[in-house]
Amino acid sequence: MTTPKKTIFLISNGDFRDTACEMCWPGQKETIDIVDKAFQSLGYKVIALPEYDEKLHHGFVTRQCYGTEIFSKIDPTAPVVILLSCWSYAHHVASGLQTHKGPILLLGNFDGTWPGLVALLNHSATLSRLCVKHTRLWSESFTEDHVFMDRLKAWCATGKIIYESSHLVSANTLTISPEADSFGKELAAEIIRNKRILGQLDPGCMGMLNALINPAKLGAIGMPIELLNQSDLVAEMDTISDREAQDHLNWLVERGAWFDWGVDQFKDLVHSQVLEQMKMYSAAARYSHRFGLAAIGIPYQIGLVRCVAASDLAEGMLNNSDRPDVIDPVSGNIIQQGKPVVHFNEGDIGSGVPQVLMNDIYQRKNMAPETTLHDIRWGREYEGKFVWVFEISGGAPPAHYGGWKNTRVYRQPSMYFPLGGGSCSGISKPGVITWARFYESFCEIGMDCGIGEVLPLNESEVQERLNRTTAEWPIANVHIPGYDRDQCMSSHMSNHITIGYGDILQELIATCMHLGIPTRVAGDVKDTLK
To answer: Is there a domain that residue 294 lies in?
Structure first.
């Protein structure tokens, strides 16, 4: 098992779904070849694993058991690079990396269509959750990128890359107003007293182990976990009548939501798919009420993807204040009338915690309470500012687009959603946002947060951003001063980011600190709090 000097193992981690891996393989192979050349130019030999599978038409790791088999044959002290040019499940390789002794590099492409950057952020947060030391690196052009090559050379020589971190500061070093501090103290005391229960269905979706947080640490901040089962959600859906589902759909149409209807269920959005989504909406609201939840998280992938239509439209409805009434079958009362039933997409507790805190703060301040998470999907310069594409398959509320009249429902892509169902899509309206991310890293919890702005871009720029990512999904074009590409990619603790409209940063900081959550402030806004 001894490896010759200057040999690096390059592992292609992939999706669980072979259909997705087959589609993404040409891009991965292109990235393998260019990264191989980069290492060769530095005097290193690359061994790419796994080998290409002629039957599957790709060379990705697609299961944890395949990943552990590969690592069993690798020198445990050899340098390892996890090469990420598309979405992939971090747990496929995480267990092998937990016992690996050599330097570990997570290397991703910075691209919207083949989003290795999303996978890189997920893998890094997952490894930090599992207490595995590693290094991040990303590029758009690789060998043509001199900064990238310098960093790659440094990693080859030392096993690490040092990134500048002045964009992040501890909230303990900042000054917040007495009013915000008093607000946070009062809210934190109320949370500790009355608790905010987080309902997580079948956690660990899509290999995002960073979506899992130690229950002891959640309980200690007054936000205990309620572990639920997605099969029971399907059973609850079976109790919802077609009449109730149709009434919900009629309500959306009357509010002005636009549906991209078709006739072929295998490629189009059809009526039966949306009725199933309406039943999931009612079932989730009932669930939230039954268990006294402050928020609920439906992972959908893996599990529900083979049982029912996509959860995304239901998620967007839940997160919106303006939504169809759902009646509790026991009491006959309307559940959370006129308020969001907070939903954290993909069962990600790291978003559930800030969504609940932000929802509480917004409602206490009589501000619009809608929140969502997004993937940090891509970004580029626009009129002298770095503007991120935040995008997610589901969970984004129509309030973020200016209401149902600006909401468009497309069939979810067949590659990921074979049973169809609609997205809850729109272009997020201009305005100031507060963003946050809760996480667990090397056995310690934390919250990163800051202020950004959704910008109004011209129509052609928005369309190109949609075309270069996933056009069926909701998009927010966000500028976070002082948290551009390299600042975010070097330190953000997830592929996800939570947003809500309006500046509540000081109240959020104060609440977190009084709950005992170590908090960091990112970007230029920190300079206004000194």
So the answer is: yes
- Indicate if 253 and 123 belong to the same structural domain: no
Q: Is residue 166 part of a domain?
A: no
pLDDT computed for residue 234 by the predictor:
96
Burial 380-395 (b: 16+ CB within 10 A, else e): beeeeebbbbbbbbbb
55 and 19 in one domain?
A: yes
Instruction: State pTM to two decimals.
Output: 0.96
Please report, in angstroms and rounded to a whole number, the separation of the first and last CA atoms in the chain. 54
* Residue 145 shares a structural domain with residue 248: no
H helix count then E strand count, the chain: 15, 18
Provide the 10 A C-beta neighbour count for residue 72.
11
Please say which residue of 110, 126, 158 terminates a domain: 158
Whether residue 348 sits in one domain with residue 200: yes
Tokens at 321, concatenated = 């204040």
Burial annotation 239-271 (CB, 10 A radius, 16+ → b, else e): ebeeebbeebbebbeeeebbbeeeeeeeeebbe
Rounded to whole angstroms, the Cα distance separating 163 from 123 reads: 18
Q: What angle do CA 490, 496, 500 make, to 5 degrees?
A: 115
pLDDT at residue 485 in the model: 97
* Degrees to nearest 5, angle at CA 89 with 83 and 92: 80
* CA-closest candidate to residue 136, choices 475, 442, 496, 488: 488
Beta pairing partners, 176: none
Q: Which residues pair with 438 in a beta bridge?
A: 447
Q: What is the CATH number of the domain that holds 105?
A: 3.40.50.10940
Domain count, the chain: 2
SS3 285: helix
Q: Where are the alpha helices (DSSP H) in 328-385?
A: 349-364
**Three-state secondary structure call for residue 431:** strand
**DSSP H stretches of helix in 299-341:** 312-318
Spatial distance between the Cα atoms of 42 and 144, rounded to a whole number of angstroms? 14
Domain termination residue (choose one: 105, 131, 158): 158
Give yes or no: residues 149 and 177 share one domain.
no
Q: Is residue 286 part of a domain?
A: yes
- Note whether 150 and 212 are same-domain residues: no
pLDDT at site 530: 82
Residue span of the structural domain in which 242 resides: 172-529
Running along the chain, 530 residues long, what does each successive block of 10 average in pLDDT?
A: 84 91 94 96 96 95 96 96 95 96 97 94 97 98 97 97 97 97 98 98 82 96 96 96 98 98 96 98 97 95 88 97 97 97 95 98 98 97 97 94 98 91 98 98 98 97 96 97 98 98 98 98 96
Assigned domain for 202 exists: yes
- Say whether both 351 and 406 belong to one domain: yes
DSSP per-residue string spanning 375-405:
EEEEEEEETTEEEEEEE-SS---GGGGTSGG
Is the same domain home to 136 and 184? no
